[in-house]
Amino acid sequence: MEHRNSESIVDYYKLLPHPEGGYYRETYRSDALIGTGAGVFPEGRAYGTAIYFLLLQHDFSAFHRIKSDEIWHFYEGGPLLVHVIDPEGTLTTIRLGRNAGAGETFQAVVPAGCWFASEPVAGTDFAFVGCTVAPGFDFADFELAERADLCDAYPDHRELISRLSRY
């Protein structure tokens, strides 16, 4: 099915509002669990999870971090910027999309523990992507950034953090 607009994607894939912004639906959660009592995940986690994720023009996914690697996949719409701040404070902006000549890529990884936020490129009606997380996503591993704290930690990125945080 070819989607002409964001509303048809939300309806067809039965997407729901996501707490960090945009719309999503979980499409996969492994039944197998990584052992309990180990490392970062003492209560165990699914081997992997996957979601569909849609951001509309003028919407954003607020800065947050998780305890697992997150692989982003571009599907449809316009390009999406994924801004990543690593623990040392280095900012990298990934441009997901289909135009390699413009520096876009179909797939990219946000490493575990990095702060990240995403937004459609200016002039984009919507960006429809997927996210695969390993070990699997759990809201217990999700931390939404507090604007003041993140700005204090990474003052060089204050403008971006202020624009792409909610609290």
For this entry, give a set of tags.
single chain, 167 residues, mainly beta, six-stranded antiparallel sheet, five-stranded antiparallel sheet, 3 helices
Largest sheet: 6 strands, antiparallel
Order of helices and strands: HEEEEEEEEEEEEEHH
Strand order of the largest sheet: 1-2-5-12-7-10
Report the structural category: mainly beta
Radius of gyration: 16 Å
Arithmetic mean pLDDT: 93
| General form | globular
Number of helices: 3
Uncertain stretches? none
Q: In whole angstroms, how far apart are the ends?
A: 38 Å
Q: Helical residue percent?
A: 10-25%
Tell me the fraction of residues in β-strands, as a range: 35-45%
| Number of separate strands | 13
What do these coordinates show?
The chain is built from 3 helices and 13 strands, in the order αβββββββββββββαα. The longest helix has 8 residues, at 6-13. It is mainly β. A hairpin with a 5-residue loop joins β8 and β9. The protein is globular.
Question: Strands, helices and their partners?
Answer:
Elements: H1 6-13, E1 16-17, E2 23-29, E3 33-34, E4 45-46, E5 49-56, E6 61-65, E7 69-77, E8 80-85, E9 91-96, E10 107-110, E11 115-120, E12 126-134, E13 143-144, H2 147-153, H3 158-163
